[in-house]
Amino acid sequence: MKQPVRIAVTGAAGGISYSLLFKIAAGEVLGSDQPVILQLLEITPAMDALRGVAMELQDCAYPLLQGVVLSDDPTVAFKDADYAFLVGARPRGPGMERKDLLEANAAIFSVQGKALNDVASRQVKVLVVGNPANTNALIAARNAPDLDPTQFTAMTRLDHNRAVGLAANKTGFATPTINRVTIWGNHSVTQVPDLYHADVAGEEAVDAVGEDWYKNTFIETVQKRGAAIIDARGASSSASAAQAAIDHMRDWALGTYEGDWVSMAIPSDGSYGVAKGIIYSFPVRCAFGRYEIVQGLEINDFIAGKMKASEQELIEERDAVASLLPAETEAHLENVQIADRSNRELNARGLNADEKAVFTERF
Amino acid sequence: MKQPVRIAVTGAAGGISYSLLFKIAAGEVLGSDQPVILQLLEITPAMDALRGVAMELQDCAYPLLQGVVLSDDPTVAFKDADYAFLVGARPRGPGMERKDLLEANAAIFSVQGKALNDVASRQVKVLVVGNPANTNALIAARNAPDLDPTQFTAMTRLDHNRAVGLAANKTGFATPTINRVTIWGNHSVTQVPDLYHADVAGEEAVDAVGEDWYKNTFIETVQKRGAAIIDARGASSSASAAQAAIDHMRDWALGTYEGDWVSMAIPSDGSYGVAKGIIYSFPVRCAFGRYEIVQGLEINDFIAGKMKASEQELIEERDAVASLLPAETEAHLENVQIADRSNRELNARGLNADEKAVFTERF
């Protein structure tokens, strides 16, 4: 049997984690032959509830679950972690301004970034789910100078999956026939769901759904889907957010399908003119546990304007917490470039037949 | 690609289903090559919440999910269903006596039994999760005279998994090394967690955990685990119940591991002296989509007394709703015997090499 990998999850007694943990333990991230140890972080007042969740994990008798660690100390929960799902975040309270919210979360994610820097595996893959996810990921990355910034990502996969699901529902085609959908920018209402490079069952996606409907209904529906779910369910999206987190991490670890790509919010390397350093959602392909931005897509003015607006929002978010961000060191910037170059080299030399075996098979 | 199977789930907007549906759609029951259509039943006032859940299912863009049907009419939700998870049940309200609870649920499950009888696939596999699960399953079965009673089962897999998890936690061995645990009887505090035929990493389980601890701590811990979870979490077991439902149906459909068995509450055929016809949990092995009671286990007096008490409870539950139970017809009883005989013949002739391939592989 393989050696177990350590998977840290924060906000582990919350609603999203209640769906997420039982999927991780069942093998949905890394497959049914990969044992895992769950390392769960909560705030002190939630430790009793967390023990209840751990009891239920034990009660599932998962063959793959080789251990569960519970802690309110990030240096315990992140110790040697190979994967970290940062789910917990401070929600907006009554009377809280946007800047208050950003700062409250900056405090959380700077502590967690430092802890990851100090104790996590040097190859740790970090996914920030807690909102504002992109800027929280930026804060964590900047507080982890010994890690490569490209190890820090934020989740736009829920938006990506929503876009695929909506296109499937509109056209009647199954989701595996829908490829190369992109979410650009921030995981917020400024996100840009882009169908111009996508296709549905071999037809250009914008034609398949109709350009009017795409521009006037599709984009806004995806952007505001979170609120629509709350209206219908009376509770926020938990199960679908957990599934998106699973999908994000699985594809990052095991690879994307040939002919398709996924959306991940990652440190911008300047591709498509996006300001370097902010955590921005791009179309990416994954292989060998790395991701690479899909290059060379032609961006029309309609999309370019929206991309700029979302970039602007992220720059403003960054600036709002600037006083809490450690300076970006030269070495840190160099890391981004090295990681980026390495990814490009990987892509440029192509994949041989053996290496392709690491891609998961699409049925 | 395979033809989709239809999976009906009742109480589909409730807590257990919120974990269950997203596992079914991800392929945890029937594997990653089996498309599914979910047919979801709720009471009329919960249809808005159910639409919210369906939106989230769409938002996951599951490759295997080929359709979702929402209805408050069981003849719609059960139409051609190959599998039915009966999760929804009436919980005990304030001032409600045990008999009131049994009768309120008898009303629900008699309607659902009739609907399954009228519209479900003739091979439908039914799992009752909603409590009192055993007697609810009995009521549904008796209201479905055209189906084989052995198609109706109730869930003691959560108790089974809890017993395995607890033994693993006590001994430090991984759950796959713990085999042949049994839950006898009712899914209630009278259930009988039996370790006398089990082993842990090759050692007799009762020796591995210590007989005193087994008799004085283990049994009661498993019996009262539901209440302990509520104490810790402030909410009842949902995720672990959903996982147990997945495990029950998966093993029934795809087979149990060689050298192990699972616990399922099924119509008693009189094995081990248990009154015929009541839905009683036995150790079973599954293959070819059928289950068979493990025969020939030696039952000591300690266990036998507890088995009798649980049987007595189930007889009382049955008698409390007797006025609502259609008479058991000769043909219906004959069906039980035919199904039972057929299962025995299957086992008696043994499995050839090809047939063994249907067993799922244990790593």
From TrEMBL, chains A, B:
Residues 156-320 form the Lactate/malate dehydrogenase C-terminal domain. Residues 5-145 form the Lactate/malate dehydrogenase N-terminal domain. One of its GO terms (molecular function) is L-malate dehydrogenase (NAD+) activity. It catalyses: (S)-malate + NAD(+) = oxaloacetate + NADH + H(+). Keywords: NAD, Oxidoreductase, Tricarboxylic acid cycle. The active site is at 187 (proton acceptor). NAD(+) binds at residues 11-17, 105, 112, 129-131. Substrate binds at residues 92, 98, 131, 162. CDD domains: MDH_chloroplast-like. It holds the Pfam family Ldh_1_C. Its EC number is 1.1.1.37. GO terms for biological process: malate metabolic process; tricarboxylic acid cycle. Belongs to the LDH/MDH superfamily. MDH type 2 family. Catalyzes the reversible oxidation of malate to oxaloacetate. This is Malate dehydrogenase. The lineage of its organism: Bacteria, Pseudomonadati, Pseudomonadota, Gammaproteobacteria, Cellvibrionales.
